[in-house]
Amino acid sequence: MAEVVVDNKDQMEAVSRYLVPTEQVFAVLDLKGTGTGFIGVTDRRIIFFDRAFLGRRKAMVSVPYSKITSVASEDDEQLFTRGFFGSSLLIIKVSDQVYEFEFRGADKAHLAYQLICERL
């Protein structure tokens, strides 16, 4: 079993509360910005905390891989923003809904992209 990539232990604990029996977590990655705090990638779905999902309410959103219609990874890596200071964007389309996740660090979107694509 591969090691789980976790940026923040509290976020891992939050995701763990929503797992079903035998579900395996591959990564819980911290996000940049104020809307969504983190994204979890499991063997069954992506799961993320969204403060804007239901208006002013907070919600844990779950998207099974079977519902994902496309996934993209975009970099904003410039000469002075490489590594931790860079950012990266993961875009996931589910039916007519598009979710954008901006990560701290230039490599996080690529990791999430690879983990998700392996399961599509």
What does the secondary structure layout of this molecule look like, with pairings?
Layout: E1 5-6, H1 9-16, E2 25-30, E3 36-42, E4 45-54, E5 57-64, E6 68-76, E7 87-94, E8 97-104, H2 108-117
Parallel strand pairs: 1-2
Antiparallel strand pairs: 2-3, 3-4, 4-5, 6-7, 7-8
Quick summary:
It contains 2 helices and 8 strands. With 120 residues, the protein is an alpha+beta fold. The longest helix has 10 residues, at 108-117.
Secondary structure category:
alpha+beta
* Count of alpha and pi helical runs: 2
Specify the CATH homologous superfamily.
Pleckstrin-homology domain (PH domain)/Phosphotyrosine-binding domain (PTB)
Low-confidence stretches: 79-85
Instruction: Summarize model confidence as the mean pLDDT.
Output: 83
Radius of gyration: 14 Å
Task: Sum up the overall morphology in one term.
Answer: globular
Strand content: over 45%
Helix content range of the residues, please? Answer: 10-25%
